[in-house]
Write a structure and sequence with these properties.
The chain has 429 residues and is of the alpha/beta class. It contains 13 helices and 16 strands. The chain is globular and about 65 Å long. The N and C termini lie far apart (49 Å). It binds pyridoxal-5'-phosphate. The site of pyridoxal-5'-phosphate has 15 residues, from helix 4.
């Protein structure tokens, strides 16, 4: 009998196989039919330390023994309090307030609502949001509105609100910065960006100096700066936050995915006292009108706290640096790939003719090719990226890059339709 499940980002009409995974450990997934799959994309970018990290699993089990879910409007609990304190301590100083939700998309919705609430409560209503070309901020209506328009959201476009989009940096990024300066003159509410790496947009990298200048322009113009670090946070780009490499602190920071080490859903939107205080009043109409039923789920918060303890006690950034070096060596040896690039633990390149298009014809073939080799790589069209958990071993990484090398050979097309300009290697290979 066919499964009744409607899977995310899946065209069921293609009848592609859907492996049944029954166990996960470290960088490996084990299927019910006995295969061991290397999870080279951290199960959609969430798993940082590895699957079933013992410290995170113990925290979850311990918390589940005491309290499951409680309402979080007007009530609180120690796992949420402890995690919020630890986050405030760990993240840059002005980010002194923590709003809980349960996914990256909702953390973005909350960020947008914080920005608009801030302006309205100050008596200077502003509505426009600025975004960066090729951005992705989730699949809710607000997330899609501030993200790139295209095949992902064509059917829903009539529902999306208007934004102003600055171009993706080319060369020294002057195109981006000039456009941002010009748009800031119209007093928008905020700019939202994925710092240093546009993930779902095709693993497009840009330089920290450009990010720093974007932040400076917003600060000068009094435009709120929202950093969506849902993917780039927790070491992915080589530092705890991608913003760290530009030496900047946003007004609003979105975190999810690696917040619990990838074990269980949780998100936070962190912000400054200024934005919190703009909502703090005896007037109930000025509160932040947002909640999720599962806001600050205690078990998820306990997992988040265990993740922060791992960051505090263990040499996570050394592991990240090592993984970066190991990937760089292997990526440099690949032949028949285009635009090979790496940023921290994220390596990417285009195969075939390198269209960089999400619906590139070779996409489904590539997916099947890697699946047959027991490697979980999920190309975005002909863009293939490797973003493994930090615990991946050298032999596992070798197996991933052997599969990638074979695919590069099998799918090679000498005719380039490379879209070029977007690709700005953070570390030239
Ligand atoms: C930068 C960014 N923002 C937001 C999201 C949405 O997160 P979620 O899928 O948890 O809603 C993602 C997901 O990949 C992301 O990469």
């Amino acid at each position: 009998m066919r499964s009744p499940i409607w899977h995310p980002f899946t065209q069921h009409g293609l009848d592609e196989p859907t492996p049944l995974v029954s166990r996960a450990e470290g960088a490996a997934l084990y299927t019910a039919d006995g295969r061991r799959i290397i999870d080279a994309i951290s199960s959609w970018w969430v798993t940082t330390h590895g699957h079933r990290n013992p410290r995170i699993m113990a925290a979850i089990a311990d918390q589940a023994g005491r309290m499951d879910q409680i309402i979080f409007a007007g009530w609180t609990h120690e796992p949420a309090e402890a995690l919020a304190r630890a986050l405030v301590e760990m993240m840059p100083a002005p980010l002194a307030h923590v709003f809980y939700s349960d996914s990256g998309s909702t953390s973005v919705e909350v960020a947008i609502k914080m920005a608009l609430g801030y302006w309205l409560n100050r008596g200077e209503p502003r509505h426009r949001i600025l975004t960066l070309e090729h951005g992705y901020h989730g699949d809710t209506i607000g997330g899609m509105s501030v993200g790139a328009r295209g095949v992902y959201n064509r059917a829903y476009t009539p529902l999306l609100f208007d934004v102003d989009t600055i171009p993706f940096p080319a060369g020294d990024g002057r195109n981006t910065l000039d456009a941002l300066e010009a748009m800031c003159r119209h007093e928008p509410a905020a700019l939202i960006v994925e710092p240093l790496v546009l993930g779902a947009g095709g693993m497009l990298f840009y330089e920290p100096a450009i990010l720093a200048e974007m932040r400076a322009i917003c600060a000068r113009a009094g435009v709120l700066f929202i950093a969506d670090e849902v993917m780039s946070g927790w070491g992915r780009t080589g530092t705890l936050l991608a913003c760290d490499q530009a030496g900047i602190v946003p007004d609003i920071l979105c975190l999810s995915k690696g917040l619990t080490g990838g074990a269980i859903p949780l998100a936070v939107t962190m912000t400054t006292a200024e934005i919190f205080d703009a909502h703090r009043s005896t007037d109930r109409a000025q509160m932040l009108f947002h909640s999720s039923s599962y806001s600050a789920n205690p078990i998820a918060c306990a997992a988040g706290l265990a993740n922060l303890e791992i960051w505090r006690d263990e040499p996570v950034l050394d592991r990240v640096a090592m993984l970066g070096r190991r990937q760089q060596e292997r990526l440099a040896r690949l032949e028949n790939v285009r635009n090979a690039r790496i940023l921290g633990t994220i390596a990417a390149c285009e195969l075939g003719s390198g269209t960089g298009d999400y619906l590139a014809a070779i996409g489904p073939g590539l997916l099947a090719f890697f699946r047959e080799r027991d490697v979980l790589l999920r190309p975005m069209g002909d863009t293939v990226y490797v973003m493994p958990p930090y615990c991946i071993s050298e032999p596992e990484l070798d197996a991933v890059y052997e599969a990638l090398a074979e695919a590069a050979m099998a799918f090679w097309s000498p005719t380039s339709t490379d879209r070029g300009a977007g690709h700005c290697p953070a570390q030239p290979l």
